[in-house]
Design brief:
heterodimer, A: 235 residues, mainly alpha, 8 helices, B: 53 residues, 1 helix, rod-shaped
Chain lengths: 235, 53
């Protein structure tokens, strides 16, 4: 790793923790409670990290799709590594969004899940698509075949994102639409808290992505060296 | 809505978010450190196997 890369990493890691702390402060203290229209005004503060986690999962899946396209064109394993790493992290964020959403739903609606709500259903479909992506990678041993098959999943999966994102606008069922609707938009303090949460989780995503790519590169280097050393290294 | 229950959901959600983030980051850090160590060991073995060493 050269000095410039190391400095960028240190700056990113250094900026992420204060931003995360600021995001928690803004979500829990700075942003006002919303009692109008919500049965659970305190649980409503889950929204800042729930929405941020969902956004970052979309970002991660778009990066997976982009890198998958480049991989299929160039067959450069570096892009496959970034694509798979980003998919795994995106899945973690998507899981976070689903769990926090379910907790909020229990507080607000009295149930954890509503199968009839298309936003929830399509988000679950998105989660299942990327779960399949990870499963496929675990099942195929040959590196290039694995890269090709999972790239197709990575590209097709991203098609679920516009549907998942706009489901509450199209079907207008139970899931609230809080940003730029015809009924108005968020209060400035709430919007600021949401933006800080999105930025801080995005920074966290890029930190984790760098570590995850390192792990993948180390793993391949270890496998290559083991092959070079033969069976002796496996003992 | 009972206020305590409302707060409890908030605590549970934030605990899950940050405990999950901590566990995932620790898992990745441990895995990275283990692989780095394994790589260094293998590299030193490859060097020692090179002719003339």
């Amino acid at each position: 790793m050269n000095l410039a890369t190391r400095n960028v990493r240190m700056a990113l890691f250094g900026a992420t923790l204060p931003m995360l702390l600021l995001a928690v402060y803004m979500a829990l203290v700075y942003a006002p409670s919303v009692s109008v229209g919500f049965a659970a005004p305190n649980a409503q503060r889950i929204f800042y990290f729930h929405v941020a986690a969902a956004w970052v999962s979309y970002l991660a899946f778009f990066i997976t799709a982009g890198c998958s396209v480049v991989y299929l064109k160039t067959r450069s394993m570096a892009f496959d590594t970034v694509a798979s790493s980003s998919a795994e992290i995106g899945l973690v964020f998507c899981t976070t969004a689903i769990i926090t959403g379910a907790i909020w739903a229990r507080a607000e609606w009295g149930v954890f899940w509503r199968w009839e709500d298309m936003k929830l259903f399509l988000t679950l479909v998105l989660w299942l698509v990327y779960m399949s992506y990870i499963s496929v990678r675990g099942m195929v041993a040959a590196r290039e075949t694995r890269g090709r098959i999972s790239s197709v999943f990575g590209i097709l999966g991203v098609l679920c994102i516009p549907l998942s994102f706009s489901a509450n606008r199209i079907w207008a069922q139970f899931h609230p639409t809080v940003i730029a609707t015809s009924q108005g938009s968020l209060q400035p303090a709430m919007l600021a808290a949401l933006m800080v949460a999105v930025v801080s989780l995005s920074l966290f995503y890029f930190c984790v992505l760098m570590i995850r790519v390192d792990i993948e590169n180390f793993h391949h280097a270890v496998e290559e060296l083991k092959e070079k050393l033969g069976d002796e290294a496996d003992e | 809505m009972r206020p305590m229950n409302d707060m409890m959901y908030l605590y549970v959600a934030y605990t899950i978010i940050w405990a999950g983030a901590f566990v995932y980051a620790t898992y990745l850090h441990t895995k990275q450190a283990g692989l780095r160590q394994e790589l260094e060991n293998l590299q030193s073995r490859v060097k020692s196997n090179e002719p003339g060493k």
